[in-house]
Amino acid sequence: MGHALIVEDDADSAEMMAALIASEGFTAATATSLRDARRQLALQEPDIVLLDLVLPDGSGMELFNEPETLANTEVVLITGHASLETSIQALRLGAADYLIKPVNIKQLQGILSRVMRPSTLKAEIANLRAELERTGRFGLLWGRSAAMQRVYEQVARVSGTAVTVLITGESGTGKEVVAQTIHELSRRRKKPFLAVNCGAISPQLIESEIFGHEKGAFTGADRLHQGFFERAHGGTLFLDEITEMPLELQVKLLRVLETGTFMRVGSTQSMEADVRVIAATNRVPEQAVQQGKLREDLLYRLNVFPIHLPPLRDRPEDVSLLAEHFLQDICKREGENKRFAPQALEKMRSYRWPGNVRELRNVVQRAYVMEEGHVIGDEWLVFDTPAVQEQRGPYLTVRVGTPLADVERSLILATLQHFGGHKEKTAAALGVSLKTLYNRLKEYSQDGGSTPESS
């Protein structure tokens, strides 16, 4: 059974919250002043403190000046309204969450269901740091570079709070992995983590997908549909490529962040949104605002705690570690062990990886498939960028305005010719499956084109 302390100068409100907390299986004590709070803290260390900052004999913030008093207690601020300032204040003070007056029963129940002593979270972070020293892994993230060490520190700092996070970085740097690591270190870990790519959903459907819709809300809505906010209840919602969300929907998202409520499409009834939002973009947020891709007020509301992921070219010392990690994962999945030759690792370290970690994973996957032996040399390390392809073979000149189908045909046939008709090497070089290559060659043959003989 947990113990809660309610520090609230309104005695009636304090007693009401104490009754609610007792119904959730906690014991509860109340304090209407700082003096009473200190006395209660000395009598029994609570698992959670619900702290109003405005008290008759001072500010509740004064308790944060006595770290030993709250060293192993989760603190939840009680505030008159949800605002950006409240989020920043909660983060700065080290509070885990905040409640809005008048206290909502469901919100309070959600917070109580996630109570976790700070010492538990600190121990988990310490274990992750020890694992980082041994293996180069921090949760779901890999890398020992200074740039990634900074990311780990930020993740450790923000995971135990409820504030919104905005992750920036180039495509393929691992923004979703960072978001998932934050979730798995948070008090919401037992609830869902849902990821939404805002750029991959039709603008006509994205509102319904995120907020849900009522039966009959529009043509084709033949049943009630729960959106991501409902399905992620109690957990974390990751909104990737937030700048691709339509501006009119950004207004509604802002409202959810400010009020904690939303409505399904076609409904007039508000629903509680007990969800932590983490957003991400591969654009520079300020430029996205200038270009009309992102509302400035939404940026301020999301950017409470920014995390920037470095591109892989800025942490070359992590390339070998990541490549070995991906290879081990593939070996485990496929049931056949392979390893990199030294020259293969050196070649990967010297490449600039414009596709970042995602490109590295693809390259390792292709090399594993193409290498028939147990040692992967540099022969099958076929990178995704044209610059590297040019180093491996002749140029292919394409006139501006050439139809894409013609460009694809010319590139496939020229690559096949370069490799002497060897289809496996051609497929690997182009980054496509053998089946795709065979299908394309069959199409060209039916159209009357010729292909080199296979070897």
TrEMBL record:
Keyword hit for Transmembrane: no
Q: Does the keyword Phosphoprotein apply?
A: yes
Q: Where is the Sigma-54 factor interaction domain?
A: 141-369
SMART domains this protein is in?
AAA, REC
Q: Which GO terms describe its molecular function?
A: ATP binding; sequence-specific DNA binding
Alphabetical keyword list: ATP-binding, DNA-binding, Nucleotide-binding, Phosphoprotein, Transcription, Transcription regulation
Location of 4-aspartylphosphate modifications = 52
Query: Which SUPFAM superfamilies does the UniProt record give?
Result: CheY-like, Homeodomain-like, P-loop containing nucleoside triphosphate hydrolases
Indicate the segments forming the Response regulatory domain, all copies: 3-116
Write out the GO biological process terms: phosphorelay signal transduction system; regulation of DNA-templated transcription
- Matches recorded under PANTHER family: PTS-DEPENDENT DIHYDROXYACETONE KINASE OPERON REGULATORY PROTEIN-RELATED (PTHR32071:SF117), TRANSCRIPTIONAL REGULATORY PROTEIN (PTHR32071)
Protein name listed in UniProt: DNA-binding NtrC family response regulator
Species the sequence originates in: Caldimonas thermodepolymerans
